[in-house]
Specification:
Length: about 170
């Protein structure tokens, strides 16, 4: 019974992330597209990791999961610093908790595997919820006021394509 719930939970989570990604591609701006793509990418990386490694016990530091969480943190942090939105900060903060779980596991081996698993996995649910709320807010705001800047002022140059050279003469 518990295994059935666990598989259903994973299928629901994957389906929701893919649905958010599709909606972000259609109605979202670049921050929504990048963050939803990063979440789907994290799911794909996790599925590939478990296809190669198999199941994990959380009794020791999970280097594969730690790598995935660090990469997702770096992506979400870079977006959060530049996006003209608040919810990416929640995603980056949740990922920081997930990264901290791996540091804590490496430093203190007496941590219970369930505590490690919860600290590592729960932030992803916060990420999905934050993306859902942020994407909904973006769609509503766009319908209400029209297009608005996706990035903070100075970061437009960072994300924009390089300017074309002017013809001389």
């Amino acid at each position: 019974m518990l295994d059935q719930i666990w598989v259903s939970r994973a299928s629901f989570q994957y389906g929701l992330c893919v649905a958010l990604f599709v909606v972000a591609l259609i109605k979202g701006a670049m921050p929504e597209k990048l963050l939803s793509g990063a979440l789907v990418g994290a799911i794909v990386a996790d599925l590939l990791y478990h296809a190669v490694i198999g199941s994990t016990s959380y009794a020791n530091l999970e280097l594969g999961h730690a790598t995935q969480d660090i990469v997702l943190f770096a992506i979400s942090w870079a977006i959060a610093l530049r996006a003209n939105r608040v919810y990416p900060l929640w995603i980056a903060g949740a990922q920081l908790i997930s990264v901290t779980s791996h540091v804590y596991r490496a430093a203190f081996e007496h941590i219970h595997p369930v505590v490690y698993a919860v600290m590592m996995r729960l932030p992803f649910y916060v990420n999905v919820l934050a993306l859902l709320l942020g994407l909904t807010a973006h769609i509503r705001r766009t319908a209400r006021i029209g297009k608005y800047p996706s990035w903070r002022g100075y970061s437009d140059r960072f994300w924009a394509p390089p300017p074309r050279p002017r013809p001389s003469g």
